[in-house]
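Review form for a predicted model. The reviewer records the input and the model, then writes brief findings.
Reviewer: anonymous (R2)
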Amino acid sequence: MALSPDALNAYVDKKSAGGDMFFKFTQKQSEEIIRLFTEEQLNSVQVKLEKMDDISSPDQKGSFTMGLLYKDDFDEKGKLKAELSPRGLIKGDFSDYDKKSLSLVMASRKVPAGFFVHGDTGIKVAEFNMTESVLGFEVSDEQILFAFGYDGGELQTNFDSADFVAAGDLFPSFNSTEGVMPKIELSFKKLSDYGKESNPVIVKAKYGKENFSISMSPALEKLILQTSSFESKNSIFSLGENSSLITAILMKGNPKSMGSERVIEPFETDLGFVPSWPVKNWRTEKYELYQWNLFPRVLFFDFKDYATQSRFFTRMAYFVEKEGYKGTLQNDQFVATHRGYNAHDYKAIDMAAFFSKAVKDNFPLNEEEMLLRTILVHNKILVPEADGTFSASEGSVISISRETAAATRIQLMAHESWHGIFFSSQNFRDFVKEEYENRDKVTWNFMKIYFTTQNLGYDVNDEYLMMNEYMAYHMQRSVEASRQYWLDRANWANVAAAAPSQSVYVKNSKGQRIVDQSQRFSDYVFKNWGLRSGKAWLCERE
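Model under review:
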């Protein structure tokens, strides 16, 4: 409903009566806005302004101011009061930008009753809607979106930072059952060249006092950064090197359901943030749960210790992989006294078989395994059947533990992550299979004997498992680091005794066969995802 002459056409032209456009929502609009505000938590107003030809006139700059109207801005007869109380405003100037339209988002503490725009000649109000709370900016081909909190602000002209200092007004500042801390969404330009493995294209970034880098990837259009992964809270986000490659920095809320007492919904993230994710920001004492941004069907657990991880996965390890035990369900006493792994990985079909056998055999699973089953069903990796069993959808689970020493933890995370990709990508499996079939058999025999000396219990007759491990052991460290890693093991007394000729072969060749294979795998993952051996993530703290 137009409340001023210029608002009738939603356009300030040369015959303007002053450039003030006041709009009040109709009764029907107000009822819908109240519903959106209270039921769907859409508590921000979004107004799209368009630049008309008049702004090209030399005597017009295109400056504007936008604000919100509330019920108490109107008198008893519904007429707009002559004087409005001070309030947050959004201020800007169209002449600072080369876009035809600007979309302005402003958070509202209470249900809005309307909005106003004061502008120079040539500014048109094109659209209005209610939206979720958001802060930051997004630059697209046709428009720029600017999003503010309750107090508004001035439109920025440089797109190398976003001020989230006041984010605590809109989003939780800590994780609880009432809600979780917000996320930051970055959008990227598509590149024709992503660099080389030795020199990838990198964007430098900083949140608060914490610096990190982002390797650009042909598979990455958007990146979700969880503020829970940082020590800093409600800080300025800034870009350094290659800042022009970022087209959006937007802070958004996470679903309130992620703060439930049972943590079953994952934080979407790049895995590079997981190793030093502040434990104080975990949503539960025993573990944190993540969703890999590059491979959304991969869930990633980080456990506080081996004991907790074991209760989730050791029985499954024997069921899925351990030679002599595959397909069997071992009792709790066995699980408590037998070693599983320091890190785990399982695909959907094997987990479905595990939980289905437990149902068929009426086998009592522990509390953690029942929670795992709930997580897998909730995230649609397992599908419940009418008879109580489970079928497999797409997806997998990988895990590591905080009890592992820092350097080894990084290696295990890389190792398990490669398994996650192997489970996720048929093309990668095909490539691995081709490499495996053309493997250097002496080197591989050396590796398999090494497995037995470490009591890993792999079923070496399981070709799928062996292909998967063949790849992951070649990729768990950087290409050159793989050389020394395996040369060191060839010199271990127990390994040399178990594999005398194979150890000599590896040492005499200076591990070159291993390096060559690691490089071929690394070339493949860099070309497809911007990853490389030893680094199955795009973000790295500095």
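Findings: Residues 175-260 form one domain.
Further findings: The radius of gyration is 29 Å.
Recommendation: see findings above.
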